[in-house]
Amino acid sequence: MAHKLEDKDRRALDFHRSQVRENLPEYFMEDYPTFVKFLEAYYDFMDSDGASSFDTEIGNLNSIRDISETPTKYLDQVIAELGSSIKNGDLFVDPRFSARRFGDFYRTKGSERAIQEFFRAFFQSEVEIEYPKGNIFIVGEDRIGAESLRYIQDYRKYQLYSILLKVGLGVRTYRELYKKFVHPAGFYFEGEVSVVGLAENNFFYLNDSTDLYIEDEDVGAKLVTEVFAEAALLSSITGITDSIDGDGPIVRSIRTDIDRNYINLYQTLTIEELNRYFDIKSLVSPNSPKFDDSANIARPDFASEYDNFRFDQNVFGRYNTDSAY
Amino acid sequence: MATTIKSTDLDFDTIKNRLKDYLKAKEEFRDYNFEAAGMSNLLDVLAYNTHFNGLLANFALNESFLNTAQLRSSVVSHAEALGYVPRSYSSAVAYVNISIQINEIVKPASITLPRGTTFTSSIGDKTYTFRTLETYAATPDESGVYEFTTTTGSNSIPVYEGIERTKTFFVGETSESQVYVIPDVSADINTFLVRVLETAGSALSSAETYDNLANAVTIEEDSRFYQVKEVPNGNYEVLFGDGISTGKRPESGNKIVITYLTPSGPDANDADGLTASSDLRVNGVDYPIQCITETAASGGAFKESIESIRQNAPIKFASQQRLVTADDYTAQIFSKYNSYLDDVISWGGQDNDPPKYATTYVGLKFKEGISDTLQQNIKNDIVNNLTKSLAIMSVETEFTDPVTTFLEITAFFNFDPDLTNVTPRATENTVKDLILQYFDDNLKKFSKVFRRSNLIAQIDDLDEAILNSRMEVKIQQRFQPVLGSELGYKLSYPVSIANPDDENYIITSNRFLIGTTICSIRNRLGSNRLEIADGAGNILVDNVGFYTPGIGTIQLEGFGPSSVLNDTVIKMSAVPANQSTVRPLRNYIIDIDDALLVANAQIDYQTTQVTL
Questions:
Q1: Which of A174, A163, A173, A227 is nearest to A196 (CA)?
Q2: Which of B51, B247, B376, B512 is 20 to 30 A from residue B32's alpha carbon, by CA?
Q3: How many CA atoms lie within 13 A of A40 on its CB side?
Q4: Are B60 and A61 inside 8 Å of each other by CB?
Q5: Chain B contact for A110, CB < 8 A?
Q6: Which residue of B8, B45, B58, B67 is the best one to mutate when testing the A interface, meaning the one whose CB has the most A CBs within 10 A?
Q7: CB nearest B346 (choices: A45, A106, A185)
Q8: Do residue A106 and residue B5 have CB atoms under 8 angstroms apart?
Q9: Contact A297, A268 (CB under 8 A)
């Protein structure tokens, strides 16, 4: 009788074995050996073929609700129970991992963490969550003018109850699932397509409006570069073919793995000094012609971390491979 | 409806043939004649064994999951793993004003109405008993009337239908696993009063009362909570804390007294005109209890069905006792108030028209017979006990009533009388019944979409004599006009309306009177302007408003009928832009106007050897 043994050190092993010879009268072995073989062949048959074999399925009962071991078709049943209206695990890259996470995921509903986990689990994407209420123009507190980057309340994006999601996906892709699983009812939400990490070599160039700034947040310092891209060149990702009242989609590069000490150093730079550097790359590259050593500021060596950038130099068409680096 | 997993082939012949093929492939059995009688019998026995065991394996597999289990005990068990307690029998609740009159000169400063005071009401030839589940107090007014009120000051006292039962347990050695089962499959677990006495001889007044763990806010080691669960035979088991994580555990020698109601379920709904079963004794004198039924009984229900548990348990699990997404509101409200509700829908204010942020809208479809007062009480209860506690701070809840959109269905089908003994007229009635049943089964709730092809397919399958069918669909909104006053009315449809047509009217109405002229509203052909015309087609008013196809609205201006013919409402019918799919938005519910349902048989002998 063929028995497959898969010892994963996870559960007690169960050795099925034929009991035909033990249960038949002893004289059967001598007088009716063919009949004994016949019965043994029958038990082999039951173990041989998943289509007619109850033995396999009974064996499965042990682990049928074990997320790690149950066959995919039964895992789908577990996911259907835990995942509310989700019918199976097809939505997930790793359905077993996602099945284990449902409980925690539901319990964190209403938090940023839940939104982040939602995009990781369902779309394998990182999301950046912003609250545009922080950019609302407040009379008496904020300065008037484009430099202030403050916006008048518009009862849509710029209001108290709004959430801005920056993720490398079109809103249509995730809208319904997002609203079903994590979106706080009553809040406006808007999605911005983030092209960081999606851009491919040499497919667009950027215009001149490049800027670099440091965001020093509680959760960790970030170096940020924002540039405008020509709309049509990004249309394969954003679906936007032209920009009517702006310079095009914003390409945003963020580096979050900066050591706080380095940030502290760079925070001593003046705005004029910072403006000499077009972006993070020009700032941290050891060979950057833009870097001005004469400033005599202790400058950290980012060279070893350079490969960790979330964008390729070709993302910035301005610095194509012919540029002087 | 449950799906099933088919794990192994359960066709006997297939199993036998596979066994035969398997044995034939074995060297030692290759030359055997498997069709011979003896061998065939032997194979039959073995194939039956395989078949039988395969069947058992299938049953076991299917019972392993919520979506495929067939036994109630399995479904309840899976639901329990998701933290869901299926609804038990529910007592019908009536609200009454209770008072007594004391005319003695020396009046007591206050009197109490004890828990368990009973009232009766009859429906048909059956009498139902209702009782109070709390003690209520009353103080006299200047005329000596004592009206009982709740702790919040309301004089609307809830009384619950059912027979009161008590089950007593004695706590054994705590090292043993204690099991307390209420042997009553019809118990209403929401009426459980769980009291624990120090010893068997302790007075009931000295008992410690335990509360349902579902109501717990904080739990400490001496907190007194119980849990209740349905056990496989349908009875209810009461569980207590372990003294550490879930609160105090009754000690060995304690006596547990559990009092509860066994209700009649929905049979007691609509009970009205309740009367007190006995007088109230105050200071040794019996006074008659005056009882006025404020709200007839409602909310009585049977145990939650298997399908309902299957549907609600995962949603409740996803909600995790918090109100963040719109679906959370639906799950929490429906699981707690489903004995009063047919359906619930919720949506965020960002999806409302017009948008209203920091607001969640909730549409409730109450069961038949729930009074307006009780509906309002339930809404207040949802806000006070649910959304205020669980929702995101600053997000308010607003209730909206369901808006019914009626469909006017005209079904045509080709009918060959040679293929059946049933007459075309009878078949027309059968088709009408089928359409009405389709609406009962598939629509009349929130978010239920009308799909014409599904219904046509059912009509085609109804009888062999029905050769093919087609269907015309109109959508209808109603309003009650103020007779004799020229006013404006705006009607919103949940779908887009068809663009104006040069040959057919897109908008029509039922008939009404202006002065003494019978007339109706229609759109001007080729235009979205609305006009009033009489039966002969003469235009009486050439501009009574307009309709906007894209957003599905009708605006009437200066409309003042003197009366409506054979009705009290104006029915405004419109051809939808897409007759194949009518999808209700938010709180719209699709129903059928059965008065305008038409089924029309067109005789078709399938003859092709004729001229047109």
A1: A227
A2: B51
A3: 20
A4: yes
A5: yes
A6: B8
A7: A185
A8: no
A9: yes
Token pair 């040794």 in the structure block, residue: B284
Higher pLDDT pick, B293 / A280: B293
pLDDT band of A317, cuts 50, 70, 90 = very low
Residue A43 contacts B where some CB pair is shorter than 8 Å: no
3-state per-residue secondary structure call for B310-364: HHHHHHHHHHCCCECCHHHHHHHHHHHHCCCEEEEEEEEHHHCCCCCCCEEEEEE
CB B530, CB B547: distance < 8 Å: yes
Please judge whether B320 and A106 are an interchain contact, meaning their C-beta atoms are less than 8 angstroms apart: yes
Q: What is the pLDDT of residue A296?
A: 40
The residue among B123 and A137 whose pLDDT is bigger is B123
d(CA A31, CA A22): 15
Check B57 against A189: CB less than 8 A apart: no
Closest CA to B547 of B517, B519, B576: B576
Residue A28 in this model has a pLDDT that exceeds 50: yes
Interchain contact A71–B (C-beta under 8 A):
no
Q: Is the dihedral of CA B57, B60, B64, B67 positive or negative?
A: positive
| pLDDT tens for each residue of A114-138 | 999 888 888 888 889 999 888 888 8
**% residues pLDDT > 70 (chain B):** 98
Q: A203 or A284: which carries more pLDDT confidence?
A: A284
pLDDT at position B194 over 90: yes
Q: Reduced to 3 states, what is the DSSP secondary structure of residue B33?
A: coil
